Amino acid sequence: MSKGLVLLVNPNKVHPPIAPYALDVLTTTLSEAGFEVDVVDLTFDRERWRSVIADYLDRRRPMLVGVTVRNTDTVYAFEQRPFVNEHKEIITEIRRRTAAPVVVGGIGFSTMPFALVDYFGVDYGVKGPGELILRDLAEALWSGRSPETVAGLLVNRGGGEVVRVPPFTVTDRTTPLQLNGFGEDRVWQVDREHSYARESGVPNRVDNLRYYRHGGLGSILTKNGCAYRCAHCVEPDAKGNRFGRRSVQAVVDEMESLAAQGIHDLHTTDSEFNLNIANSKNLLREMIRRKHADHTSPLHQVRLWIYCQPAPFDEQFAELLAEAGCAGVNVGSDHVRAEMLAGWKVTAKGTTYYDLSDTEQLVKLCHRHGMITMVEALFGMPGETLDTMRECVDRFMELDATVTGFSLGLRLFPYIGLGMSLAEQCDGVRTVPGLQSNTARGPIVLKPLSRCSGPVEYERQFMFDEDGEFRLVCYFSPDLPEDPATVGSPTGRWHNSLRLLWEHVPESERYRVMLPTVEGISEHDNNYADNPFLTSLVGLGYTGAFWAHWRDREAIMAKAGAAAPR
Length: 566
Known about the structure:
Rossmann fold; seven-stranded parallel beta sheet; 19 strands; alpha/beta; pyruvate-formate lyase- activating enzyme; 4 domains; transferase; 34% helix; metal ion binding; iron; BchE-like; methyltransferase
C-alpha cells in the first residue's frame, strides 16, 4: 500500500528538450521508499501547460509537489534571458489548484536557493542533490513529523525569511555561509548505490526515448559534485565540494537500460568526467568487460559524449574511452595564458592543474583514437585584454580540434568565487568596472553577505534590482577594448570586443569555430535555448552532441529549409 502520492513537475519549456534526469532520480528513490510518484512534464506541452496542470490536479490529490528548476536563465552574457518568471507562473498555478506543499530543487535553483524559495513563494527548497532530502520530507509529511526536522531542507517562514535545517551541529563558530550550506560536500545527499529507473513510454513518467528523438542525446551521471574551485563555476557549491561517486555497476546497468530502449547517444552530466579519473577508468573498464562478455549487449550501440578538463588525461584513458565507445570529447580549457588561469581554474588548494600542453596532448590522443573534439575558451575574466584574447584564439586554432568555441562575458552567481569577490569589492557602497546588466537602471552595487539582512537579500541582487525587476548581473573585463562610455555604463554592451573577436578569426576558418553572437553579426546563434540550428538538427533526425555537426551547419540548415512545409 502506498504511503501517499508525490507529484513531480518539470516546468522547462526550452527546446531542443533536455530530459529532466533529476525526476528519474527522485522517482526511483521515492518509489523504493513506498510512495506513489507521478511526473507531469510540461516540456512537450509548453503552449497548453495550464490545461495539463488543471487536468492532472482535477483528478489527483498529491500530498507533496516537487518542481525542478534546471536553469534560472540562459547564462549567456549577451542575451540575459531569464526563465524563473515562467517557472513562477507555473508554480503559482499549481498552488492555486492544490493545497499540497510545494518544494523546489534542481541545479539552477541551487545557485540561489534562498532567494528563489522567497520569489516562488513555495514552502520548501532543496539545495544540491535532492533525492534523500525529498524522501525524508515525504516521510515527515506522511508520518506527521515536522518538516523542520529534515536535515538540509530550506523552509519558508514567510516575510522574506527562509532558513535551512542544518545537517550538522550548530555552534558559536558556525558562519552564516555555513548555515546557508556553502562549502559542504553534499555526498550525504546522494543515492550512490541504486541504478536510477530510466523509462520510456510509461504514463506519468519521464519519457526518455521521446526526449532522445526530439533532442538527440540521453544523459548519464557517474558522480555528483566537484572538488575543484574554479572561480566562475557554480557546481562546487550547488552540487557539493567533494565527489559523490555512484556505484560503477549501477551506472553501467543504467546505460544498458537506456541503450536497450533505443537511446544510443549518452552524454555525461558530471561536472567533468575525467576529474577523479581512477573512478572514470573503472567505469569504462566495466563497460568494456560487459561488451566483451556479451556480444548482444546494448552497450555495443552506445556512443558516449563527455565533458572533461585538459588534465588528467593520459594515453590509457584515451584507449579506454575509445574502446568503451566514446564518440567525442568536449574540453573546457578556457584559456592559454598562465596568469589568466591562475586563481581561476584551480584545485581546492588554489593551484592551477593544467596548461596548454595538456590540451594539446588531449586533442592529439583523441584524434589518434578516432574521437572528435571540441575545445572551449571563456573570455572576459579579470585581466582579459585584446592581446590575451587574440593569443588564446591563435593557440587554440592551431590545435586543429574538430570545433573550437569562444565565449565572451560571464554570468555572475552568488556563491561562485568571482561573484563573492566582486560583492566584497563593491562592499555595498560602490560599483566595480566590468559589472554589467542589459536591464540595469543605475550603477550595479553589490553587497557581501555580511552587509545583507540574510541570504535572500544577498542572492536576489544577482538577478533582481532593488524594485524587484530582472537585472541579471554579468561581468566583462574592463581591460577589453571598449570605449570608456561603454565600460562606465552599467548597461554597456561589449560589442566592440565581440566585433574584434570575429575579425580575428579568418572567414575561411569560421566553419570550424563557434563565436558568441548578437543580432546582426551572424545568422548563426550559438546559444542553446530555442536555437534554430539545433532544432533543425533534431528535426532531421541527427543525434549526438550538437557541436559534432557544426562544420556541416550550412548544408544542414539548407536541408532543413528544403524540408520545411510551405
